[in-house]
Amino acid sequence: MASATCTVLLGRAYLLLVVFFLFPATVHGLARVKMDLLNKFEESKGLLTIPLDKQYVPVLRDNRTIMYKSTYFGKIAVGEPEQIFTVVFDTGSGHFILPSSKCMSPACASHRRYERGLSRSAVDIDYDGNEVAVDQEDRDAISVLFGTGQIEGEFAWETVCLHGRKPGTFSTNLQDMNATAEWQVGSGCTRVRVVFATKMTSDPFLSFEFDGVLGLGLSGLALRSEFSFMGQMVASRSLPASIFGVFVSQTDDTASEITFGGFDHRRMSGELHWATVFRPELGYWQLQVKNILIGGEPIELCQAGDCVAIADTGTSLLGVPKQAAQHVHWLLAREVEESQGEVDCRRHPGPDVIFDFGDFQVPITAKEYSRPAGLRVISKATNDTQFICRAQLLPIDDSPALGHKAWILGEPVLQKFYTAYDWKAGRIGFAPSLQPPGHAGFKRHRIVGLPSSELPTPTVVHI
């Protein structure tokens, strides 16, 4: 979800924009009471925490699953009366996109669709924010590319809440909305311009469990500031602080979480180290990297200090510049002795990857970046076999906005580090994440598409 190409259709004209997942009963009871008290303490500070469901998405090659990507998504309330949707909270995009009831494609039909006729708080608008009739056919639309997929949608002002609606009033007067009227501090609700999809391709959206995407990128990724969800939340003072924090669980027993209005100390094993966003006008939560080291040796591509690293909650892999991907693959590959059973490469040591931000470093290990299954290489001449463990990497294409030295800090980094995003200050904080113990009966989340506990069959190559 890190990059998208947007085309705005003004009536029938086109404007192109590029915008760049078991205890004894007594102990269990005490643990539950302690957890409830901690939750109440965090809520007393005005923090709003949303547990995230997880979906495993298989990656196929030659009709065989070679690995799994993962997505994380939570619930959000839209409209009055509220309609509940599941969304990916994506720091790598800038718009809130939901399927509309107007959309009849299979990808839309397989998800909950927004019913415009049921909401009293919606105002249909054109690209400039001017009100249009609900039944107007010739209206502005937007086309957005997400990797292999595409959506087309219309615009509307709508009320969005991070939880069930609290009693209050709202206005459907455009002048009030453009003035960004303040809500009660900590309400977790705001008015924002939403893209409601009228067309959505099956690839990849049909395979996803979540309904939509809530972009949390900086304002530069949005068509206009009114489309920026966090921008509107901050402007309307709907949160106690202009910060949100992300915790990605390392096990399926414990829910991952996103917290709005601050960060959650319960999910951190140390203090946050902050770094300033580099070129915030681009809209990405990106940082300038002093250097990147693999196995203690610096990567030549980044020795000049001009590489960037983007924190992206919508990416499940470690993103590497395309020109360096093959070299990084080679550096992270290692030969292992294959036992009678299959090898889980995540448990076999390999070189650390260290992102050096100057004042602090963010390291990840083979546990985070490795593919579970290895590669079995068989010599045709000698019949000798080598078993190779490899990394899961996402090659990043060059782009006018990102250049050719952009790295993506996806799930491998986010599982190891709690990250906090300070909207007003334009900075990102990293702290080693504290993985809470799983407790039977504590689950607040779903796991979709859970793969078999058996390791995927290694890929066999004859040379």
SSE arrangement:
Elements: E1 4-10, E2 13-19, H1 25-44, E3 48-61, E4 64-78, E5 83-90, E6 96-99, H2 106-109, E7 123-125, E8 141-146, E9 149-161, H3 174-178, E10 189-200, H4 202-205, E11 212-215, H5 229-235, E12 243-247, E13 256-260, E14 273-276, E15 286-289, E16 291-294, E17 297-298, E18 307-311, E19 318-321, H6 322-332, E20 334-336, E21 353-356, E22 361-364, H7 366-369, E23 375-378, E24 385-389, E25 393-396, E26 406-409, H8 411-414, E27 417-422, E28 427-432, E29 447-448, E30 459-462
Parallel strand pairs: 3-29, 5-11, 6-10, 18-26, 19-25, 23-30
Antiparallel strand pairs: 1-2, 1-8, 3-4, 3-13, 4-5, 4-9, 6-11, 7-9, 8-9, 9-10, 12-13, 12-27, 14-28, 15-18, 16-17, 16-21, 20-24, 21-22, 23-24, 27-28
What does this structure look like?
This protein is mainly beta and 463 residues long. The chain has 2 domains: 4-260, Acid Proteases (Cathepsin D, subunit A, domain 1); 270-435 and 458-462, Cathepsin D, subunit A, domain 1. The chain has 8 helices and 30 strands. The protein has helices at residues 25-44, 106-109, 174-178, 202-205, 229-235, 322-332, 366-369, 411-414; strands at 4-10, 13-19, 48-61, 64-78, 83-90, 96-99, 123-125, 141-146, 149-161, 189-200, 212-215, 243-247, 256-260, 273-276, 286-289, 291-294, 297-298, 307-311, 318-321, 334-336, 353-356, 361-364, 375-378, 385-389, 393-396, 406-409, 417-422, 427-432, 447-448, 459-462. The chain has a 6-stranded mixed barrel with strand order 4-5-11-6-10-9. A 4-stranded antiparallel β-sheet has the order 17-16-21-22. Strands 20-24-23-30 form a 4-stranded mixed β-sheet. The longest helix has 20 residues, at 25-44. The radius of gyration is 23 Å and the shape is globular.
